[in-house]
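[Automated response] Your request has been received and processed.

Submitted sequence:
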Amino acid sequence: MIGIGASPGIAIGKALVLKHQEIEVSSKKIQSADQGAEVEKLEKAIDKSRKQLEAIKEKAVKELGESEAEIFSAHLMVLEDPEFVGQVKLDIENNLDNAAFATQKIMNQFVSIFESMDDEYLKERAADVKDVGTRIIKNILGIQSGDLSSMDEDAIILAYDLTPSDTAQMDKDRVLAFGTDIGGRTSHTAIMARSLEIPAVLGLGDITSQVKDGDIIILDGLSGEVLINPSEELLEKYEHKKREYQSYRKELEELKELPAKTLDGHEVEVAGNIGTPQDVEGVLNNGGQGIGLYRTEFLYMDRENMPTEEEQFVAYKEVLQGMEGKPVIIRTLDIGGDKKLPYLNLPEEMNPFLGWRAIRICLELKDMFKTQLRAILRASTYGQALIMFPMISGVQEVREAKTIVEEAKRELEAENIPFDKDIKIGIMVEIPSAAVSADIIAREVDFFSIGTNDLCQYTIAVDRMNEKVSYLYEPLHPAILRLVKNVIDASHQRGIFTGMCGEMAGDPINTLILLGLGLDEFSMSALTIPQIKKIIRNITLEEAKEIANEALSLATPEEIRDMVNEKLNKLNITIM
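Generated structure:
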């Protein structure tokens, strides 16, 4: 079976199949006189859920660390969310639904909203709501949750899906790997598996119906393959591959603290993408030399009102102090499109991704934008902060945004509040118009960072979440490579640098081409950092330039990919 390789590594062992338990909730209406009793039942279930989640979080802190345990802080926030809980109570009172049915009804509405979003991170938040909602329903109905904390023997866990609670309660010493019917690379199961360094293959369709307890399984988190009751020959083959991978990981471990320098001495920066201050630890542990993308919108989400300047200042300061002088590129608020803020009342639009979003909102809501800029400037004295504007389509937007930065600076000066007066300002290049006119915009900024996810989407005119056309989404499309080259060349002609913080930067197949095109900074998820360093340290810049030039001469992504794989083999550079 083939799924999505969500956490690298190879595991061989017996299967333990967790059957998906559907909860049957009766929709029987209650009497008006019973409203109070149903609300009380709901509140008791919420209180019990809170205690359970606090206990799980405490266990997760001990076994996974503070950062990963934050998942349960998010769950507790869902539990405390007055909108969620308030709507359940309203449903009981207005529609006379019983507490369990009302919870399921509102939970499904929230899940549906999150699942309809295009942003992968937000889409996965549906799992948080479902996990918490299901817990409340179980507590209302008195259903005991399954306990995975005591396993008798080592096993590969196969399930329809694994909630963060399931994962946190498992006996980690016994779990060899995860395999699930559903899920993707940004799901909690994937994140937890990578954090625990447990191999995982997700999105296997119906593996739980094809495997029974005790079957022998080979699970390859590198290729996404799962083999059921394999032959002796296959077992031997994968035992060998497993040893090779373990040796490869050991080699990567030794590279963590080394610079990303080519064999002929050209050095670039390999940095990490983060969403919260808690993510800094992962970047540093994997040898990240900076933060190439700090997504500040997460400060604005999962709450009822705008974060204050002080709240933002504390978060930015924590990241800058954590990075101990290494550069931190802080992207200003990137909201709109599929990212809504309930307290901002963003209008419904025909084409939200082409509409009022990101810098366009900030330039109109200047007070909100200036509050964020003041917070960033105040925090800038605690490290090396850089400001990046998202969704720039032309030079006028850059000038308007910089004007507001200058206003914020003058205010702080008048208040005798210190800040970095030479703070660098750059833009995220994610719209083709910005990439094509990079030579003009380069006169106005200190750096570029290419956001390849949106750049691919807008350039190829493809919605990567649309199954009918997602095959067209291709970072190695010749048009994308030409735009990337144009941006890098324009920045170098003005003496400024270009980074890349889209997914393209973290895919090892692209590293040699991007290096050869002259990219100065690669920013990605923390776990990928050592692998990209390894590739860069095993080639000369001249060789990479030859590969990039050859890629630019080819006609299709397939030809480019085949060429790069051939070069990697000749250079004896292994990607696993």
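Summary generated for your ticket: The radius of gyration is 25 Å. The chain is about 50% helix and 15% strand.
If you did not submit this request, please reply to this message.
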